[in-house]
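In the previous chapter we treated chains in isolation. Here, by contrast, the input contains two separate entities that must be folded as one system, with a combined length of 1192 residues.
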Amino acid sequence: MSEIPLLWATLLAPLLASILSLFIKEKKSLAILNSAALGFSAIVLLYLYTSKGTTWIDPVSFSIGGLGTFALVIDPTVFLVAFSIAVTTSVIALYSLPYMDHRFEELHHEGVSAPGWGSYYFLYTLFALAMMGTVMSTNIVEFYIFLELTLIPSFLLIAFYGYGERLKIAIMYLLWTHVGALLFLIGALSVGQKIGFDFITQGGFRIGAANNLVGLEYAFWLMILGLSVKLAAVGVHMWLPYAHAEAPTPISALLSPNLIGLGGAMMFRIVYTLFPQMFASASPILTAWAVMTMIYGGLMALSQTDFKRLLAYSSISQMGYLLLGLASVNAYGIAGTFLHYMVHAYGKAILFAVAGILIATYHGLRDITKMGGLAAKMPYTASLALLGFMHITGIPPTLGIWSEYLIVRGAVAQALQNGSTWYILLAVGLLIAIGLSTAYAFVTMRRIFYGPLKVQEAREANASLWGPLLVFALLGILFFLFASLLIDPLLSFLKTFPLGA
Amino acid sequence: MESLLLLAWLSPFIGTLLILLFKSASWRIKSLLGILSILVSALVSSYAAYLFLTEGESIHISYPWVKSLNVSLGAFFDGLSTVMALVVSWLSFLIAVYSYEYMKGEVGGTRYWLFFTFFVGSMMLLVLSDNMISMFIGWEGTGLASYALIGHWFTDEEERWVGEPGRRALGVPMWSEPSHSSLRAIVFTRLGDVGMVIGIATLHTLAGTTLLSGLLDAQWATQLLSKGVLPVFLWLLFLGALAKSAQFPFHEWLVTAMTGPTSVSALIHAATMVKAGVYFALRFSPFLVAAYILLQGGIGSTIIEEFLVGLAVIGAFTAFMMATMAIASRELKLVLAFSTASQLGYMFLGVAVGTLAGGAVGGLYAGMSHLMSHAVFKAALFLGAGAVIHAVHSRFIDDMGGLAKEMPITATAFVLASLSLTGVPPFLGFWTKDEIIHLSSETGLIVPTILAVITAWITASYTARMISRVFFGHSHHKAHEVSPVMFTPYLVLGLASIGIGAIWPSISGSFEKMLEHTLGGENSVHMLEGHIPGTFEATIILVLLLFLSVFYIYSIAKKQPYSYISKSPTLMKLHSFLFDRWYINALYYTTIVDGFKETSKALYKYFDTLIVDNFYHKAIPKLFQKLVNVTSIYIEHTWDLILHHYLVEGFKGLWRIFKQLQTGKVSSYLLYLWLGLSLILVSMYILGWFP
């Protein structure tokens, strides 16, 4: 009996909704339609994860000449990423309704006539499904096509509905992420030419397929560098603060946690699996780069006064955590990376959405120095913000504590292998990095929500703005409680890889 | 049936959930939910203690939580955790009862009970955990709850501040608003937690399990020793405990934590939070003993011994430093806060010297007994202080005085607890502090021992000053005794300080026996042996003498030493030094906090904006612009010239020539045809197109 191509369905349902959006005028129906389609994907992914065993390849695939086979796959690592994307985008689709209402009005005041609701949701859902496609892909070219498909809609969303010099920033975003994508592509093509473009076949990952290729170090490093641009590791992070700060807030809430984290996810799924030996020997460099990214992002976040820009730098720092897990080259660290992808997705989506709530409620208020004392008037928003920060700083009862532990566990095991100097350096680095994360998170909480009230006519925002965010908080807490549901399969899956201690 | 023991920590969390669900209910209902959920925890803990004592062995139930990390949820009652669970749950219960009256009518009632119960639940979870991860989760939970409760009055009105508004040291404000204090608490303690989580991850890596029982074979120590990181590891592992228990150099957060409601201060200082650090030290010191025995004779045992000596020095130094600050403070709660940090120093000293002198049970007994006696008297003192502050509407002791007449019950409880703090026999505090000083002298460690003795003297002085300024001497205020709901909890605790103290010599033996049934508690070893004579006599004589003289000066002679001190510039300098907390706070702000702030700003300005941003968004675009210019001038322009000028001109010339060829003579045309054909044929030949 042939199985139902459920993974394709998780992409087709949003695609259908996205196309239908062009023909629907009523904004409420648009929001519900798109949110429902993405929610459907989330539920299907959950079903597949819980019922299909460790790895499941969709029965439908397309073989394309010399390019290999385009199929879709789900395993515990894919699930964490794709499910997070589906949930975040589904919830933010609802949040978009009140937020974009306000944004359209603002744009109207500026005298700009941006494309309407239909186009917004068309692009939005296209963007969402393309992100899911990237992580489910089994072939490098297929991955690249999905990646391109994420860039164009997100570029247009920033260009149409962004803030400030939105066109310039949109182009900057498009350009730099393309530079990254291209670097990756050059590396990938060099490898693909020799061993084919599939990195997953019916038999699973082609682990170590590129191990014995001579003279491909440059390809390995190009792929790493390209994905690091996506990840916005320090040094190649230049585009992120602009794009994430000036994108329309619902899009920031997708860009920041979801899109950039894909760089980390694919670094494992493609680069690590093809080059496990080279990856392991690059581990010290990557570890150092990761800790530097954590510290740098944290330090930058500390001195920002624009809330959205602060969150953008915080995302850079969080990507350092993802990279640190990967760099550990062991099951615990990598499990931490994927788990933290979910943690950051929920946490940062909440935080960007909170920034949006303040923008929408107080006429574009983004300057933290003008905020203060809002918790007294906005208890729900403040509680959600606290939960958001708890996610990313790893405080129970949120899933963050599990991912933080796993990442540290991985990094420590690796450092112990590398000798006492590494162990001490790692400890010092983590003390500073995690200390900084705690500091900027709670300093920001204080500056925005505590102290004397500084905002005139402060009031709780409309429930249509904060209500949807409860889903993130709830999921973060539920997954904290039922962590075994995520961690056990993830670790046993990753332990099948030839990883370190 | 056994699974009901889970309620020891689960019940407060259920309370948290119920309070959230009934958030619109009345204060009475929410308080009832909070108090009852903690009462259940206390009763279950007592039942477990009964089982433990009758069966004489540890009770261990566990349900898997995250199997792949060996993390389970359950309840592990051994000697240490049974005693600790009793202390935590019953004290929390009494403080909860007190809260009902104390916090009535205050804003944020739901928030208060939410985090109160969460606090107790987290603490009980950490105490009753059988593995490091769930212990760490409880640990972090207490951090969150303390953050929320210290900043309970987050709108920062001046009456909620701690410290003197306007006073600066080295330009740094010496007062703190609630929202600032809560920030300090979470940042300070989480800094230590990073070390702790690295330590736990290290143990997990080397022992292959997160179970506490998996650490007993101490193989991890051998591996760490061979990797050369044993000393670093030990300090990292204990960093969280040092920070949480406010040991130098992490003591600053505890001082400003006084911005929380007084009931919360009692909770933090007596039952939860700061005691978690000591508990951690107690929990892990038997593993150190196991490691010591395994590595005995080699460098490894020396490292462990030196580490414990280091802990002893930190503890003794903290005890001394914080006690000196308590002498000069003008705020009642601050005196108590300094005193807590100082007593926590004694506890760390106790764990360290106890372990050094007698092995696992030595440390457990010395640390745990003082933890318990301090919990009892400090809870009483804080709750009493809350009543006093409530009554006089001021946190400054200058506004108090002579309150014994108006508040006799509060005064009685407060004085009883104070005598225990001072270490007057036969109060409980006397026995437990004496044990620590005794063990310290038995290790022969001179500096910690001297500091511990001097601290006892200072403790007697500031305690006498405190009770004199509050309850005796000149009266400044009209006040009324508080209601029985409020005073019963601290009266009970005050009486317990003397009651338990009176029977302590007869029960301490079985207490020690009980603690022997702790994980790793049976390992006894003498790492250090020595004797410093006269410590007991020096302590007790001077403690009594100083207590009575200070009491006489303030209460009976009604003198104000401050008026003498203020006349001498040298003494005033000393006073400022103590009053401004040895300038450590100021130093932290001017170096660390400002350091990070400035680094962040400079890095943003000169690196992120000037270099990174300019490189990618100015230099690179400019470079391309230049390239475009160069190409357009040298290549595009030339090419343009070729195509649109020379080529056109060339064709024009060709046309002219061609026109000249149009002579009209057939013979010329034939010549051209022949010439052309020959040219084509020759070219084809040259190109090799002929076979």
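The radius of gyration of chain B is 37 Å. Chain B has two domains: 2-165+177-579, 586-686. Compare these points with the single-chain example from earlier in the chapter.
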